[in-house]
Amino acid sequence: MKKIIVLCCLLCAGIFAFAQDPNFHIYLCLGQSNMEGNAKIEAQDTCNVNERFLMMAAVDCPSLGRVKGQWYKAVPPLVRCHTGLTPADYFGRTLVERLPDNIKVGVINVAVGGCRIELFDEENCEEHIASQPEWLKNTAKAYGNNPYRRLKELAVEAQKAGVIKGILLHQGESNTGDKEWPQKVKRVYENLLRDLNLQAKDVPLLAGEVVHADQNGRCASMNEIINTLPQVIPTAYVIPSSGCPAAEDNLHFTAEGYRKLGVRYAEKRLLLLEKEPNSGITTEPASTNIPGYDYPRVDKEGRAHFRFYAPQANRLQVDCCGKKYDMWKDAGGLWTATTNPLPVGFHYYFLIADGVSVTDPSSYTFFGCCRMASGIEIPEGEEGDYYRPQQVSHGQVRSCTYYSETQKEFRRCMVYTPAEYETHPKKRYPVLYLQHGMGEDETGWSTQGKMNHIMDNLIASGQCVPMLVVMDSGDVEAPFRPRSGKDVNEERALYGATFYDVILKDLIPMIDRTFRTKTDREHRAMAGLSWGGHQTFNTVLPHLDKFSYIGSFSGAIFGLDMKTCFNGVFADADKFNKKVNYFFLGCGTEEQMGTKKMVDSLRKLGIEVDYYESQGTAHEWLTWRRCLKEFVPHLFRACLKMVEIKF
Is the pLDDT of residue 647 over 60? Predict the structure, then answer.
């Protein structure tokens, strides 16, 4: 007898160990009409389905060329020949989009519209079916009058190809008010685990809420019962349906509702997968997080993953890169959202809590958008090493308070001193005055711009001479709002105009008194980004007796007649070229600031101007970091040549 038992066990183990591909993740889906798919399949749902997303046909579908038990690309319908869009569609799509390229995802969907959970009781379903209306009996016939058995048989076949990684359930409308529903679901779940030789810890149950009360769901009261499921099944997780648009019957979801719900199923599964060893999911805490905070996180595709605990909030959104992303809340009050892939570099973002825009307490804050904002850094890869701290000598960024006689107020500027400044007490240094953009302040270049790291690395590598960099407020922290009835150009000319007296009459004299600077024009440069580029032109071009280097990064410089602007400074090209040691204009390839057109106009006049395009970037900090990296090696060339000769 013992030999027979051992032999049976070995045979059983052999069946489940047959040629499984651990990188083929399979999910079993069951439920009633919302899992079956009630919404019409739209064009976007059949396009661009990834080859790595597969479905196993649960029934024969000659019209679709499908045979029961065979795998096909997961183009809807996923259930039967004429069913609609389901949460499983966008569950699978989202998984293959977020998981490594070597992982495939397969779904097996057995669902029956209008059924109670009792239909998935394998032993008693025939008796249950006998009491049901004809339309439900006809659907059950498609599964051999035993939907559970069909799902089990297909799952056994699927295990020959891959590994079952979870079970998706959407059912409950027909059991509304049934407080025994969680126990009934538990029996179905445990039967599947037993029959397929699965462990609960490896195969979580994801159960979706029915149409929510915020969508006037007719069975919304059932959600209270559904949310008790994790108390009965420790490896069960409830997927909220709030904010998922409902159909007119208030029982089913629209196509958009199914898409949203499917993404939520996927995001929950991905969060669980992150905790599994060798899951292949690579997300890193954002470098802009406050120490000790694990979220937001960034994945290899540049998506930002947000989680925020706010059990009392009714609605949360993430406002990032010009798009608002709805967050969804689980039963514990934890809100989740994932963005589309974001451009590399630095981006401001906000949380919108019940209509109020606030900063994320998990993130450092930065002055931008005319207020304190949260920020997130999307890594650039090794190319971005130029703006990251390296194993080199580091300079200092000092906060300096001074009194402005022109404005009759105390002001603050930020001053970068190179690493050698403290160890060469008799040496004097050239100065770059570097301006921020509209809605930012004097801290922008040293926080968002990583100016100090760029300078440290360039100086250490000998690519530029040691210099001071001075950053003051351009007096443009408040948004530019033209007044009704006023000339916009005149209003724009006044925006930040107080800065011009400040830099010429207060700031430069203070810097030259306080620091060891070279005070002649040959050792003074100015540059700025966006509105700071505008202010650079307005400061330098009328005062070429004080500056000999000019830089504008995505400069907000519009509508100028190059021949006549600034008292005709560009009209005499020879004079200008002799006076200005270096003239630089840069921008991103994806922005429309008119920089290239300006360069062409200047060159036609004979003006020597260096032009740089940051590939693939728009009006953003990565563009300006790259521009600074290209600009500063050209400054104070005479000093650079002396350094090269010395070494």
Answer: no
